[in-house]
Design a protein that fits this description.
Two copies of one chain form a homodimer. By secondary structure, chain A is an alpha+beta fold. Chain A has a domain at 15-89 and 96-168: Roll (Pnp Oxidase, Chain A), CATH 2.30.110. The first copy, chain A, contains five helices and ten strands, in the order βαββββαββααβββα. Chain A has helices at 22-30, 68-76, 117-131, 144-148, 208-218; strands at residues 18-19, 34-41, 44-51, 53-55, 58-64, 78-91, 99-113, 150-165, 183-191, 195-196. In chain A, strands 1, 2, 3, 4, 5, 6, 7, 8 and 9 form a nine-stranded antiparallel sheet that branches. In chain A, strand 2 (34-41) and strand 3 (44-51) form a beta hairpin. At the A-B interface, strand 2, strand 3, strand 6, strand 7 and helix 3 of A face strand 2, strand 3, strand 6, strand 7 and helix 3 of B. Strand 9 of chain A pairs antiparallel with strand 10 (195-196) of chain B.
Chain lengths: 225, 225
């Protein structure tokens, strides 16, 4: 299933790297925890990082009920956000062709602030289980006071695009004879072994859902429930 | 030296994590290669990742002369961008207190499109040497055709803030007796050993500036020329 190419999501530069495939775009979303949201303050665009969760065509964001960005997004009713994973630095013989291997996604969606406790709990569950699969079932659920203090936004993804750059360094034909070094420096996001909180109750072992998360990340894949 | 706190850059939520110190903000910029820029298209805010270079209070961005985002930024004359490094995932006994350790910076600046070849070369040198220190001196400089095809933007940083979250997990007092596991999963960006391009001229060894970059990143520090 592909998102329709429109003036909004069509990739203008580097079209060969572009994808409108939902499976590709959603796998980039699922491999990341943090996106950067764009929003307007007095007509000026601002960028701010925030974590998120995905379930089907829906994304969820949350923040304090007093948070400005989520308040503006709820009022605006639409949003654009991006995520990116850096995979390698590409060093070429010419300054001009230096580049990076990466996977990025740009998402456009309609924003709705969730109001009922049931809706908010469902949104927060998605965020927590996106963070670490199965985590929601292994921690204390938010109480009424905590829910009241939290704004939860649901974003219906209406349009999106991805860019995947994974090709080797390329130079101008005349530069290949030069003595300048060219190559790549691979970049990886490594999730290390879980460390228990110092105040953890004696006898509580690292649970299997946390170990599974660690193992899945070691294999550069993230389990998605 | 600190940036003045104004309505624009003042951190509203999580004030204890906030810093307006130039040294702190610039070290976050220097440890990263990619930022996310916010810009308006027909009055709607969009987010898009791009690489950058810093020299003093100036940032440089570049793109194809046909690139829409850099064209819009040049026209708008001002920009907001953000960078973020994820350092750990914080798992708490309560869903409510789940969080991450991170270092982020939000930058506001005035944008000027560089027009002379000398200015553009200086901007591109900053970007390439921010990418890998000393790289500019060890690759072929852009020629007139390449320079013409490239738009280079200079951003004078006028305001900024950082947020650094590096505290251990915290729960409500009544949750510490629970059997739920709490702890952190450290996250690291690892730069692996440089791999030569398959088409590299025979006899060309990995140069010292590339090995130095690798070693510096292994020590979680980036050399800044």
């Amino acid at each position: 299933m592909e998102f329709q190419k429109t003036a909004q999501n069509r990739v203008k530069r580097g079209r060969k790297k572009a994808s409108y495939d939902k499976a590709v775009i959603y796998s980039i979303l699922d491999q990341n925890e943090i996106c950067t949201v764009a929003f307007n303050v007095d007509g000026k665009a601002q960028a701010q990082p925030i974590n998120y969760g995905r379930c089907g065509d829906l994304l969820y964001l949350h923040g304090s009920a007093k948070n400005r960005m989520t308040s503006i997004l709820a009022e605006t009713g639409e949003v654009c956000l991006s995520v990116m994973t850096l995979d390698a630095m590409k060093l070429t013989r010419s300054a001009y062709h230096h580049s990076v291997k990466f996977r990025s996604a740009i998402i456009f969606g309609e924003v709705r602030e969730l109001s009922t406790e049931a809706e908010k709990l469902q949104g927060l569950k998605t965020i927590i289980n996106h963070f670490v699969a199965d985590r929601w079932e292994h921690c204390r659920s938010p109480n009424a006071k905590e829910l009241k203090a939290t704004r939860v936004l649901e974003i219906k993804i209406t349009s999106a695009s991805a860019k995947i750059a994974d090709t080797p360094p390329v130079d101008e034909p005349e530069d290949y004879a030069s003595d300048y070094w060219a190559g790549i420096i691979p970049v990886k996001t490594v999730y290390e072994y879980p460390l228990a909180d110092e105040k953890l109750k004696q006898g509580v072992e690292i649970p299997s859902h946390v170990l599974e998360f660690y193992k899945a990340k070691r294999q550069s894949k993230k389990i998605k429930q």
